[in-house]
Fold this sequence. Notes:
The chain is of the alpha/beta class. The protein is built from 16 helices and 13 strands. It has helices spanning 26-33, 90-102, 112-119, 125-136, 140-150, 153-176, 185-207, 209-217, 231-239, 282-296, 313-322, 342-346, 363-373, 389-410, 415-433, 439-447; strands spanning 4-7, 14-22, 34-36, 49-57, 60-70, 81-88, 106-107, 219-225, 257-263, 266-272, 300-306, 327-332, 351-354. The site of guanosine-5'-triphosphate has 24 residues, from helix 9.
Amino acid sequence: xxxxxxxxxxxxxxxxxxxxxxxxxxxxxxxxxxxxxxxxxxxxxxxxxxxxxxxxxxxxxxxxxxxxxxxxxxxxxxxxxxxxxxxxxxxxxxxxxxxxxxxxxxxxxxxxxxxxxxxxxxxxxxxxxxxxxxxxxxxxxxxxxxxxxxxxxxxxxxxxxxxxxxxxxxxxxxxxxxxxxxxxxxxxxxxxxxxxxxxxxxxxxxxxxxxxxxxxxxxxxxxxxxxxxxxxxxxxxxxxxxxxxxxxxxxxxxxxxxxxxxxxxxxxxxxxxxxxxxxxxxxxxxxxxxxxxxxxxxxxxxxxxxxxxxxxxxxxxxxxxxxxxxxxxxxxxxxxxxxxxxxxxxxxxxxxxxxxxxxxxxxxxxxxxxxxxxxxxxxxxxxxxxxxxxxxxxxxxxxxxxxxxxxxxxxxxxxxxxxxxxxxxxxxxxxxxxxxxxxxxxxxxxxxxxxxx
Length: 453
Ligand SMILES: Nc1nc2c(ncn2[C@@H]2O[C@H](COP(=O)(O)OP(=O)(O)OP(=O)(O)O)[C@@H](O)[C@H]2O)c(=O)[nH]1
Ligand SMILES: [Mg+2]
């Protein structure tokens, strides 16, 4: 396989920039561009050694550089790898990469380092996919979720299920040689129990998918309510700075304003909107329409009500418009007064919380309500959470097979049919880990990566 190279660090100014080289000739090529100050060649070094020196091209010295050597198979890709760390400037790293390419390496494609790691058995496909998720994680939960899959939580669970399925189909094949009367009831009971347990595990992974997506991508969350109830104050409080203009003039916010904020370790893609009311003002009217439209695509709706005043028909109308699914009624300004009965409005929303956006009170309750709605509180730390559509679809297909096997077993159909279904489930799970994935699937997975990863 050809030796590949790419800039592994972000394109921009930074303390350090790394050019990564992987392949049979990685060390030989590095020796052409790198001179250690002790004159020792990299090819004479063992793995896991770092050397200090300079990199050069035809025009002369490029920069001070540290060369880090990994020897196959003990490297990220499983091949010989050299990482040349120079100062992190766009020009320097590009010049160094050019020198490396001119010395015999070829430019790496998107995700090619990780793809090689996969092809060389350093990781399975789910672990490879988690690398991108780790890089793009924006909060602790997303970080934990990706790292757990990177460390093998998903592949291990799938391996466990697969081994069980293989054992079961092997048994079934043996039984197939005998008349069914000979199969002991007890054995059928064990079979049923095993299928049930597999179904449970797969179903849990499927059920947690939405939470996984919410953790990874953030939840599109809309802030709605009458004018002047404190939507923008809440937005600013959550984002930690004055993103939205706050005044005591009703109708201050005229357009939708978006900001990504963290609530606990969950990311919300928060949208502040114009206060909803009947208005003759042309510009405000457009804003009100936009506010109403934003409700449709929101995964979470925060309806803010001014608690220092009696609730009125307009508040109720907005609550009704938002609906009582994935919605939180927020009674704000409780530092002044709370004239609103929590119970009375509980039927309009999934949750009701009382806060003071101005005095930053009640935010814990808000966080809990959000966690409850997206199912975070139900997730056990030991469970595998996925946020990847490919994985989700495969697990769903495998589940369909095992579930059908369960049904067939219940109605006492032939064991042959069960064997076929369990074998199908095994095939699906092999696609998940990449053992049986087609080139097209593999291409697709790595095409989403950036160059250098
Ligand atoms: N006492 C008190 N005042 C608040 C609180 N939240 C907001 N306010 C005040 O209420 C007024 C309106 O706040 P905004 O955040 O602009 O309200 P809004 O819902 O965005 O209003 P529009 O953009 O006009 O729809 C401002 O004077 C805020 O300081 C609160 O928790 N307590
Ligand atoms: Mg506002």
